[in-house]
Amino acid sequence: MMKRKRGLSGLRIWTAAVLICVLLTGCAGAMQNPSDNVIYVYYLNQEEDALVSMSYIPTLQMSKDLVEELRDELCRTPASESSECLLPDNVVMEIISVEDRTLTLRFPETYYDMEKTREVLVRAGIVRTFVQIEGIDRVQFYIGESPLTDADGNPVGLMRRETFVDNSAQLLNNYERNAVRLFFANEKGDKLVEEPRAIYHSSSQPLEWAVVARLVEGPKTMGSFASLPSDTEILSVSTANDVCYVNLSRSFLNSTLNVSEEIPVYSIVNSLVKSCNVKQVQIAIEGDIKVTFREHMRLDQLYEANEELVEKASK
Questions:
Q1: Which of 215, 227, 222, 230 lies closest to 185, judged by CA?
Q2: What gap in Å lies between CA 211 and CA 209, rounded to an integer?
Q3: Which bin fits 294, alpha (ψ -120 to 50), beta or left (φ > 0)?
Q4: Which of 59, 75, 84, 128 is surrounded by the fewest CB atoms within 10 Å?
Q5: CB-CB contact of 91 with 105 (8 Å)
Q6: pLDDT class for 203, splitting at 50, 70, 90?
Q7: Contact 204/165 with Cβ under 8 angstroms?
Q8: CA dist., res. 52 & res. 29, Å (int)
Q9: Would strands 20-22 and 164-166 be described as parallel, antiparallel, or unpaired?
Q10: Neighbouring residues of 43: CB distance < 8 A, sequence distance ≥ 6
Q11: How far is CA 188 from the centre of its chain?
Q12: What does the domain layout of the chain look like in residue ranges?
């Protein structure tokens, strides 16, 4: 029996990566130079509204051991009087696993007690510190047994260095509200159903990314069904010359959803064209466009919105 997901289904563990504005000071832009074995560890400034970094020479080299060493360093009070530890005293960082180039960390429920500005900086500082380790590209947070969620209640998911953008001209808590038109599958899986929705997202996060992330999460209204696999990872989203380029993980190809082959592709295309300032969409799988989705949907071409696939509302 093929899997179905309808209505208010459970949120997936990670949503395409959320871009966040981070205020950096000092030498925070520097990264590890393999030649001198230096890692930059991130802390808060005294005002708790920006990150500062300090060079650190690790004593351990193996990835797993180095993760533990940096965890201890992040939790230690920094020597500089102009900075302080990222995490409050009542928030303990636990290492769950390092698998498939992903570091998974667990925090207690007190994590959510942090002010919004500090919480964003905590994420940025932790991720920027750990992705300097060879073999770690991504970090995900768990709060207790559940994935970390943002202010909108959506799972934050996997975070990379690119998730955090340096932009000192923009406030951390600057979120935008946009009205979007999302397209999910109907009950038969042969048509698209439109779901108008108002979404909140960081102003430093492209609206196109936020739209695809909501599609992965699934519909919120009765009569709409999932159009994309819930384990699809959004690797990148960019727009140029009225074309939106969406790069997804290979799990997009392994869908067991009971929908026709056009539905997942046009769910993305129609939603982006109707919600964002784009006219065409191209989908890549881990950077490769020489891919055929299911039997006939070639991804090495630009797709425009398909109105004929949209189910007409009953009068």
A1: 227
A2: 5
A3: left
A4: 59
A5: no
A6: low
A7: yes
A8: 9
A9: parallel
A10: 51, 52, 53, 54, 78, 80, 83, 84, 85, 86, 125
A11: 30
A12: 24-166, 175-309
- In this structure, the dihedral spanned by the alpha carbons of residues 236, 206, 152 and 22, taken in order and rounded to 10 degrees, is 90
Residue 19, exposed/middle/buried by CB under 10 A (0-12, 13-18, 19+)? buried
**Which residues, in sequence order, are CB contacts of 300 under 8 Å at separation 6+?**
289, 290, 291
Alpha carbon of 58 to those of 37, 43, 213: distances in Å? 8, 17, 37
Query: Is there a contact between 283 and 265 (Cβ–Cβ < 8 Å)?
Result: yes
Give the torsion through C-alpha atoms of 246, 252, 257, 262, to 10 deg.
Answer: 50
SS3 294: coil
The encoded tokens of residue 101 equal 């180039």
Q: Is the Cβ–Cβ distance between 233 and 16 less than 8 Å?
A: yes
Using DSSP bridges, classify how beta strands 243-248 and 234-240 pair: parallel, antiparallel or unpaired. antiparallel
- Contacts of residue 292, Cβ cutoff 8 Å, sequence gap at least 6: 298, 299
Q: Which helix (H) or strand (E) holds 274?
A: helix 262-275
Cβ-Cβ contacts under 8 Å for 228 (sequence gap 6 or more): 215, 216, 252, 255, 257, 264, 267, 268
The predicted pLDDT at position 151 comes to: 67
pLDDT confidence bin for 13, thresholds 50/70/90: very low
Burial of 218 by CB count in 10 Å (0-12 exposed, 13-18 middle, 19+ buried)? buried
Q: How far apart are CA 124 and CA 95, in angstroms?
A: 17
> Residue 80: pLDDT above 60?
yes
Residue 17 reports pLDDT greater than 80: no
Handedness of CA 147, 150, 153, 159 (dihedral sign): negative
